[in-house]
Every structure is written in C-alpha cells, then in structure tokens.
C-alpha cells in the first residue's frame, strides 16, 4: 500500500549559541517554529530489505548520504526489520537553506516506517534515533512550536495560540550548518528562557513575536555573503515593510513577518525578481 506524508519546514525565531561541548556540538537555546511549506514523501513496499529513494530535485543525493536513507537503515538495524521500502521525495523546501528540510524528511521517515513496519518503538526511542541522525531531527517528531536546548536533543513543546503570516525568501544558494558554526565567533553569553519571551512567542501575535527575533549565526551569513546582506536590506525597505525579519538557522533563508497574509502577499509581489524563491507562509499550530 502506498502512503504520502508531508514534512514541514521550520524557522528559528530565536537561536542563541551558549557554549561548545566536548563532543563537538554547540549548545543552543532556540525557539523552533514549523511553517506550512512542505516536502512530500510517498512510501511503498519494496522487495526484501531494499531501501530505494527517488527525488525530483537533482541537487538532492539519493544514496546513503541522504538522511532519509540513513533513517530507514537505522530503523531497520535497531528494530531488526527485514522489510524494504521505496520512497519518492517531492522537494519543495529549498536545500541547505536553514529551514530543516532534510531533518524534517528524516523525522517523517522514522515515524512513518515505525508505523508501516509495525516496529512499535516508543516516542522516547524515536527521539534517541532522531538525534543520532542530526541535531534538528528530534524537533520534527513533536509539536509545531518548541523550546530547543542542548545540541537539539532537549525539546520542550510550547502551546502556540494562533498562527501568523510571513515571507520566506531564499537567495538560491546554500550555507551548511557546519560552515556557519565553524566560521562564527560566539561570545557564549548566557541566555535563559523567561516567561515574557515564552508568552509572546506562544501568543502568535506577530508584533509580540518580533520583539524576540535573534540569531547568533546571522552575523556570519551577512558578513560572508554580501548578496544576502543586500537582500535583507531590500526586504526591510520594501513597502509594505515587515514587522521584523531574521535569517533562519544557518541561513541563507530570510524569514520576514507581516501583520497578516494579505500584507505578506503584497510584499511578496513587490519583491518579485529579487530572489529565486519567495513564498508566503503561515506558521503551524498543533
């Protein structure tokens, strides 16, 4: 039987880097928010224990370096499964964009194959496997909005009250997380979750959310990619102007927040041609 599942993108409303661990991971304190920009994964049975991945985007590898294949093989190994699967990935989320597309695809694969193969692994075990695949993967197993700590493995759901509208603008090139972390100079200043931040983020009120937009990886992206700095300026100065904007994750995608969808769409039309990927989105709620 064939099944299709959507994998949402995420943005980082807050991303503070507070230290570096002995295992090489950086300690973060971040707010992750899912948005209604989706990849689609279609699953079908395959003979024996074969894992086959197909994708409509030639930029995406379909070999064992892909997190989808890694997730399927990891679940096979841990659960002792001898079943196979064919997965067709329809890619909409830009690649290496700071939107977590690959991590979301991996999380969907873990959840769907756990169901499809009837392995019965509990949520806590899936979370453990998710972190083995990548620091952002555990978030995608859970709620639409979360406070994320550690290297990404500590995920605390937040209760979002309503969605808000935004533009996702991607300049058409990628920045790897490894590059952004290695090239950044952090002061590792302390940053703690507080009730005001939590209440504003959970409210879904775009004005309140914009009070807290901050990304410690953004200075690297803007200083090393002048075209990104120029793009951010154009978005800031184009009427209707955003309430706030921030580079998501390691970049280079810019997330610009507007009072409502009508305003976001108008801004998107005014910005046509300044970047190859401009999409209006709403944040997701549970």
Automatic annotation (TrEMBL):
One of its GO terms (biological process) is terpenoid biosynthetic process. Residues 199-270 form the GHMP kinase C-terminal domain. InterPro entries: GHMP_kinase_C_dom, GHMP_kinase_C_sf, GHMP_kinase_N_dom, IspE, Ribosomal_Su5_D2-typ_SF, Ribsml_uS5_D2-typ_fold_subgr. The keyword Kinase applies. Gene3D superfamilies: 3.30.230.10, GHMP kinase, C-terminal domain. The keyword Magnesium does not apply. Residues 66-141 form the GHMP kinase N-terminal domain. GO terms for molecular function: 4-(cytidine 5'-diphospho)-2-C-methyl-D-erythritol kinase activity; ATP binding. Keywords: ATP-binding, Kinase, Nucleotide-binding, Transferase. SUPFAM superfamilies: GHMP Kinase, C-terminal domain (SSF55060), Ribosomal protein S5 domain 2-like (SSF54211). It is an enzyme of class 2 (transferase). Its EC number is 2.7.1.148. HAMAP family: IspE (MF_00061). Belongs to the GHMP kinase family. IspE subfamily. This is 4-(cytidine 5'-diphospho)-2-C-methyl-D-erythritol kinase. It comes from hydrothermal vent metagenome. The lineage of its organism: unclassified sequences, metagenomes, ecological metagenomes.
């Amino acid at each position: 039987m064939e099944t299709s599942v959507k994998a949402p993108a995420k943005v980082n409303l807050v991303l503070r880097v507070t230290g570096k661990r002995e295992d090489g991971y950086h300690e973060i304190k971040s707010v992750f928010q899912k948005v209604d920009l989706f990849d689609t994964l279609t699953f079908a049975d395959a003979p024996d224990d074969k894992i086959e991945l197909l994708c409509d985007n030639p930029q995406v590898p379909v070999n064992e370096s892909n997190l989808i294949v890694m997730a399927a093989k990891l679940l096979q190994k841990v659960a002792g499964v001898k079943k196979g699967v064919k997965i067709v990935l329809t890619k909409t989320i830009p690649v290496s964009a700071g939107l977590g597309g690959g991590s979301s695809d991996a999380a969907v694969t873990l959840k769907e194959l756990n169901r499809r193969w009837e392995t019965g692994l509990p949520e806590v075990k899936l979370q453990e496997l998710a972190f083995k695949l990548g620091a952002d993967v555990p978030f995608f197993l859970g709620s639409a909005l979360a406070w994320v700590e550690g290297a990404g493995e500590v995920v605390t759901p937040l209760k979002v009250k309503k969605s808000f509208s935004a533009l996702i603008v991607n300049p058409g090139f990628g920045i790897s997380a490894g590059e952004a972390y290695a090239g950044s100079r952090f002061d590792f200043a302390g940053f703690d979750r507080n009730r005001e931040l939590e209440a504003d983020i959970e409210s879904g009120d775009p004005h309140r959310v914009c009070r807290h937009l901050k990304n410690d990886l953004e200075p690297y992206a803007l200083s090393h990619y002048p075209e990104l700095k120029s793009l951010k300026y154009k978005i800031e100065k184009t009427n209707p102007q955003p309430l706030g904007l921030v580079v998501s994750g390691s970049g280079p995608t810019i997330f610009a927040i507007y009072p409502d969808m009508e305003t976001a769409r108008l801004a998107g039309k005014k910005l046509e041609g300044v970047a190859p990927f401009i999409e209006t989105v709403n944040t997701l709620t549970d």
